[in-house]
Amino acid sequence: MASLRDVDLNLLLVFQHLLEERNISAVARRMDLTQPAASNALRRLRAAFGDELFVRTGQGMQPTPRAERLAGPVSEALATLSRALQDQDAFDPAASRRRFRVAMSDVGEIHFMPRLMEACAQLAPGVRIDSVRTQGPDLQREMEAGRIDLAVGAFDDMGAGVMQRMLFRQGYATLFRQGHPTAHAGMSLKAFRAERHLIVSRAAPYGQVNQSMERAGLVLAEHFSVPHFSAVPYIVSATDLLATVPEKLAASAAGPFGLRYIAPPVKVPPLQTNMYWQRRYDRDGGSQWLRGLIAEVFGADGQQAPVARAGAGRRDATR
User: Fold this and answer.
1) Residue 317 scores a pLDDT above 50
2) Domain match, 180 and 254 both
3) Are both 185 and 217 inside the same structural domain?
4) For 117-144, b where at least 16 C-beta lie within 10 A, e where not — what string?
5) Is the pLDDT of residue 206 over 70?
6) What domain range includes position 128?
7) Which of 45, 92, 133, 269 is 20 to 30 Å from the Cα of 99, by its Cα?
């Protein structure tokens, strides 16, 4: 059994970086170590914990179950110590070279990333943002381990220890190409059902639109489908298919792709988009800055977003 006498801080840093990089050479470069020194640190970790911890595979150094159990506690301990050591240093976005990892869907990337990149170029030229595509239990584990800083979207069941803040609500819109022979504003539900549709089959966390269309009488299996939203504007612009998508996606795609959009004759519950972050990072200066930037740029279309509160990842913790 490992004890604190067996593990020094540098070994825990090697462990944390291996969780993130899954490559011993990358860890050596990141910590400014030689390859033998990094490999020796891994041997000492294995000896201290009595476990292989990381096993070499074709997909890199994969953690063992023991390493996965250690991931959350080690990440939290290092984050706490880091905050304690840097407590006197306010986060300076203009000087920072921090890299943030933000979980979002493909439709979220389309909406958020261009404006976030532009804001960083103006306010924090050294800061970088990586979008990450994950959800469900995987997203929870990655956030618990500190490998994802923030999640932005309509995610459900984020688990305990997660805080959230509502950004905005939006409805859905039906996209079609300009010059479509039959689609028009005010079309009836009967006419809507008679059209050919493009369905986003893996629409989570936006699946309520497909459920609503089925309740309205559309047989989804009879229509074309794609797994993600990102291909929708390209396909709709070149066909007579209709696609019902989140309203902000429709608005951003209409101009560049020569599309029109209307309110669909189907009742779909509004979609709420939140920010989510681990409670232990609530007072981290960099996390506070990024959350504030996103709330300012996107919150309720520029209006003040509701104040966050702690919870167990409920859909709307601000109600």
Assistant:
1) no
2) yes
3) yes
4) eebbeeebeebebebbebbeeebbbbbb
5) no
6) 99-168+272-311
7) 45
